Amino acid sequence: MTNAPSPAPPFGRALCAMVTPFTTSGALDLDGAGRLAAHLVAEGCDGLVLSGTTGESPTTTDAEKAELVRAVRSAVGDRVPLVAGVGTADTRHTVELALAAEKAGADGVLVVSPYYSRPPQEAIEAHFRRIADSTGLPVTLYDIPGRTGTRIEPDTLIRLAEHPRIVAVKDCSYDFLAAQKVISRTELAYYAGCDEHNLALYAVGGAGYVSTVANLVPAQLRSVLDLFDSGDTTKAALLQQRATRLIELTMSDGLPGAVTVKALLNELGLPAGPVRAPLLPAGRETADGLRAAYEELTAG
């Protein structure tokens, strides 16, 4: 028996928060970005998120962000939607980036809550409404208080869901009850932003995931959702469990995901290159551990 399908999510189910490849000199590697994007799509990603946390957005310029959208669009065509990260701590700057992403060919924007200034909920809500009012693209709200210092509270999300262009949430809140509350009271597409929650959130009505680990094992993570949809929830759970070690090493071992993902992609001969300062590259021990976990998961 298959599980009853939910309404089609706006950007697909299996989205990858793609790294931004750089050359050995640290310049933007547009050719590498196109090749990596094509590889991820061929391996099962049905959407790509560019210039997010894993894409090192704090250290890429506005021009580079737009160039990245154009290069990936050229590489994958219209096969999958592209969501561009445009969130900053400055509302005016975020509006400018959203308009630039729209012009460059993005299908949607990802907007993180303003960081550092720690605005109250009323100001956060006004920030998101201004961005949504300024662009014709659908907006995904990015709730990641561990990095921004401020939650997007459930009641704020419920109010924002009334805006016709605010369509989705990338959830890194680690508040599963709040996520279920918003899912039950809105039509927002809820994407797991923490890979350990991919299956759990999907099982209670989530739309899918925006995954960092999908840079490394896109087919395996997509299979978790496919198995669940086919009704084989036991195999879906087992595959999610098998991915735990790689998820842990990638996301919870004291290093940012951009560092660990690039370390393994470089080992695998896929486009990645170095990280930009202030990040530092992973050491040999970390790379070896990631490679071992990857080989265990992909062995069959």
From TrEMBL:
Top EC group = lyase
Q: Listed GO molecular functions?
A: 4-hydroxy-tetrahydrodipicolinate synthase activity
Catalyzed reactions: L-aspartate 4-semialdehyde + pyruvate = (2S,4S)-4-hydroxy-2,3,4,5-tetrahydrodipicolinate + H2O + H(+)
Q: What's its EC? A: 4.3.3.7
Active site, renumbered: Y142 (proton donor/acceptor), K170 (schiff-base intermediate with substrate)
Which keywords accompany this UniProt record?
Amino-acid biosynthesis, Cytoplasm, Diaminopimelate biosynthesis, Lyase, Lysine biosynthesis, Schiff base
- Where is the protein found, in the record's own terms? Cytoplasm
Site annotation Part of a proton relay during catalysis: residues: T53, Y116
Major localization listed first in the record, in broad terms: cytoplasm
| InterPro entries per record | Aldolase_TIM, DapA, DapA-like, Schiff_base-form_aldolases_AS, Schiff_base-form_aldolases_CS
The Swiss-Prot or TrEMBL record describes its family as follows: Belongs to the DapA family.
- PANTHER family on file: 4-HYDROXY-2-OXOGLUTARATE ALDOLASE, MITOCHONDRIAL, DIHYDRODIPICOLINATE SYNTHASE
In UniProt terms, what function does this protein have? Catalyzes the condensation of (S)-aspartate-beta-semialdehyde [(S)-ASA] and pyruvate to 4-hydroxy-tetrahydrodipicolinate (HTPA).
Identify this protein by name: 4-hydroxy-tetrahydrodipicolinate synthase
Organism, per UniProt? Streptomyces galilaeus
Q: What is the lineage of its organism?
A: Bacteria, Bacillati, Actinomycetota, Actinomycetes, Kitasatosporales
